[in-house]
Amino acid sequence: MSLHPQVKALYQHLGQKKLPPLQELEPAAARELAATEGNFSPPPEPVARVENRTIRSAKRSIPGTGGEIKLRIYTPTGENPLPLLVYFHGGGWVLGDLEIADSCCRHIANHAGCIVVSVDYRLAPEHKFPAAVEDCYTATEWVASYCTELGGDRRRIAIAGDSAGGNLAAAVTLMARSEPEISLCHQVLIYPVTHYNFNTESYRQYAHHYLTKPAMTWYWHQYLSTPADGENPLASPLLATDLTNLPPATIITAEYDILRDEAEAYGERLRQAGIPVTITRYDGMIHGFVSMGAFLDTAAVALTEITTALTGAFRSK
């Protein structure tokens, strides 16, 4: 399918701004540019309750060293105990914060009827791999431990993330598999990064679309201390030798996205391991489209698929 007309209009809008490529900026400047010019989300929905909290990791308890992890908890109207979703934002492990995922988390909370806990994990390059994975796992562990206090149901905890956040969700799911205290009922991976590799067909075809190959190369360079880290399954989940005993998955991909093939390959690996998987490729769309509801109508379609999948997963428990 050709590029969707609304995506073409978005490209025209961005072209008029003449913004510099993020990979040509220092990380701090890239974060500022992304925060001011990169939000294409629709207006945030009201949610019954939104609370900001800070948790501490026992592994990093010294102030100023990453021992504190900020969370934003969205609680919809509904009778307790409610199901829960732990959400990790995108941004190439370098950009993003709680604000970038705010609109999406509000929508999911309301339409899936679940408490959403959004995680502000440490960013690279100040904090290299596996710092983000550690924070996301700690937050997931915390949600499992304090779900009753949150008004949640420990039997119904799911995990989700987009782009780099999808990578972190997949990694945390792998880690949680051996932890009896964390039982995940579903994973939603939205155009996730799954492999430190730039040689797929989608990389060759779409290297200069919204998420470019130079940008993704830059993100990986910021995230990893050495290329050898990219061989670790917690950085490249596609390289995990064993994908059994993981929760069912919903995987969203975009046709015009360099990450399309590796995301779909991960879904196929899960399927081969006996995991129920739904993989939906949205034709004519680009990386990040689910968070671009202010410009792209298809974002609402994908969000409906996500909330429907979560609702079904929660009801099955």
Shape estimate: globular
Strand order of the largest sheet: 1-2-4-3-5-6-7-8
**Helix-strand topology string:** HHEEEHEHEHEHHEHEH
Query: Mean of residue pLDDT?
Result: 95
Main β sheet profile: 8 strands, mixed
Approximate strand percentage: 15-25%
Domain count: the total is 1
Which key features would you list for this structure?
single chain; 317 residues; alpha/beta; Rossmann fold; eight-stranded mixed sheet; 9 helices; 36% helix; Lipase_GDXG_put_SER_AS; AB_hydrolase_fold
Describe the structure.
Keywords: Hydrolase. Belongs to the 'GDXG' lipolytic enzyme family. It comes from Planktothricoides sp. SpSt-374. With about 325 residues, the protein is of the alpha/beta class. It has a single domain (about 5-315), classed as Alpha/Beta hydrolase fold, catalytic domain (Rossmann fold, 3-Layer(aba) Sandwich). Helix content is about 35%, strand content about 20%. It is built from nine helices and eight strands. An eight-stranded mixed sheet has the order 1-2-4-3-5-6-7-8, with helices on both faces. Helix 3 (about 100-110) packs across helix 9 (about 300-315) and helix 4 (about 130-150) packs across helix 5 (about 165-175). The longest helix has 20 residues, at about 130-150. The protein is globular. The N and C termini lie far apart (about 40 Å). Mean pLDDT is about 95; it is low at about 60-65.
